[in-house]
Amino acid sequence: MLDLLIQNGLIFDGLGSAPVRGDIGIKNGQIINLAPSLNIPAREVVDAAGLWVTPGFIDIHTHYDLELEIAPGLSESVRHGVTSVVIGNCSLSIAIGEPQMLADIFQRVETLSHRLIAKWLQKSVSWQTPAEYLQHLQQLPLGVNIAPLLGHSALRAEVMGLERSLKVQPSKFELKVMQRIAADALDAGFVGISIDMFPWHRMSGEWRGMTIPSQHAKFKEYAMLADLCRRRDRVFQVTPNLQRLASFVDILRMGVGIGKRPLRLTVLSALDAVHNRHLWKIFSPILYIWNHLLGGNVRFQTLTEPFTIYSDGSVTPLFEDFPTGAQLNSCDSRQERQKLWQSPAFRRQFRQEWLRGKHRSFHRDLNLITIVQSPQSSWEGLSFAEIARQHQQEPVDFFIQALQEYDTDLRWVGTGANDRLQPRLALMQHPYILPGFTDAGAHVRNLGYYDGALSLLKQAITTKFMSPEAAIYRVTGEPAQWFRLDTGVLKVGAKADVVLLNPDALNQPISPQVEILDPVLDGEPRMVKRGSDEIVSAVYINGVRVVNQGKVSDRLGCEKFGTVLSPC
């Protein structure tokens, strides 16, 4: 007898094949029958007539490492059809290292609340090796499948000590220790290694304001880790320094595959930036040269919707882009920020840096930055530039005045990339650019793109720029194949991670972000999506229904459904 029989659905196999109508038989968490019609007794029979049956979606860029320890169900992603996630991105992981040190590396980069960090520290468990961390993950009541990368910042800080990892280069002995630990981690089952060069990523705690350990490495150290991944055909994830073009040369050098096995390299990120409207056009020729002429195996990542970021006064990841903004983010209280603002020299320097055109990662155009919450309710819905004109002020001067006066009582929003439809579709369609980069689990107060796969499907349906089967392949079988994960397909013998979708509900715009007080985070605010409940009819992980008509099962996070995925 089957545990579950899904009948009459339109089945997408996750490999890009044309869909077929049929039945799926599931037993012991595995697909054991797949045919046009099955007449087999089952404990549960689901009529999927009118629905699409797809593999569970794969989110290739998340920062769920800490949330897994607190709420391992990851319900925000699961409710949108995600059944597998890649963690350990941007050099950040908790696979090795002392908990407080890891918290100091994580907290500011991912803008996690002090309360959330404190809760994790209270229950944190120290493991001695990355292999022990994998064993620990397997013991959690995982909601989804987890594919972990080993984070270079954690590795470097553990081997060198946090202070030295932020100030000096490793000795030959320390480099060899890093090499041995990283090799052992890959052999234990990590899907790859991540490094970080992006200067927005800074420390909290004792060394607050300094950039995280991975950014202090030289090419030799990065290349050593890349070579480990190359030899084992594992993923090497890189976050480049957008302000230092030489970082791209280093990445290119590591990713060349002429005369040797190509490095399985994934780079953040391919976006249509508001501050540089021509930048998105360079990705296609670069990737053609890299993969076709230089023997590479490179995949950029892109977001499937406009990159919109919410900010609270002076507390925002956008301010990590320039020195005075980073100073404000280093403050632990409103009083500390007020002290900075009271200095005419600081205000003058902030103004100069905000207006400076070079090396910016965000447009800083106050005509495009809107106030969403304010003690002055008449400001809400208007841009800073519009209100400045009403007050006959320069926009940047009004911006500084508003931030100084209202601090985090002033909430504002701006879109930095992917706001234009045609460039966004071109990036999502490119064979060497993977739809992903959701940052799920990070910046919970600033952004929420947990429904990235559904956003791609919506645009495929409404614009017809891609067939449904091709769009589904892009977020299931394709990333599974490239990351070498045994998931993302519907076939006999596969793990029964299945999503039932209502195709009629896909014909709608991308869902807006909304803020909730999330009980999973003990009432902390989180930006989320809520436009998927009518789309996602059901989600099954390991053959068990964990979402039904938009309602997340209470079993999620209490029982184990997912597993740790090792490269296949």
What does this structure look like?
There is one protein chain. The chain is an alpha/beta fold. Helices cover 33% and strands 21% of the residues. Strand 9 (192-196), helix 9 and strand 10 form a beta-alpha-beta unit.
List keywords for this structure.
568 residues; alpha/beta; 9-stranded mixed β-sheet; 8-stranded parallel β-sheet; 21% strand; globular
Question: In terms of topology, how is this protein built?
Answer:
Layout: E1 2-11, E2 20-27, E3 30-35, E4 42-47, E5 52-55, E6 57-59, H1 65-70, H2 75-78, E7 82-87, H3 99-109, H4 114-123, H5 130-139, E8 145-151, H6 152-160, H7 162-165, H8 172-188, E9 192-196, H9 219-232, E10 235-239, H10 246-255, E11 264-268, H11 283-293, E12 297-302, E13 307-312, H12 323-330, H13 334-341, H14 344-355, E14 369-373, H15 384-390, H16 395-406, E15 411-417, H17 421-429, E16 433-435, H18 452-463, H19 468-474, H20 477-483, E17 498-501, E18 513-518, E19 524-529, E20 536-541, E21 544-548, E22 551-552
Parallel strand pairs: 1-4, 1-5, 6-7, 7-8, 8-9, 9-10, 10-11, 11-12, 12-16
Antiparallel strand pairs: 1-2, 2-3, 5-17, 13-15, 14-15, 17-20, 18-19, 20-21, 21-22
Helix pairs in contact: 6-8, 8-9, 15-16
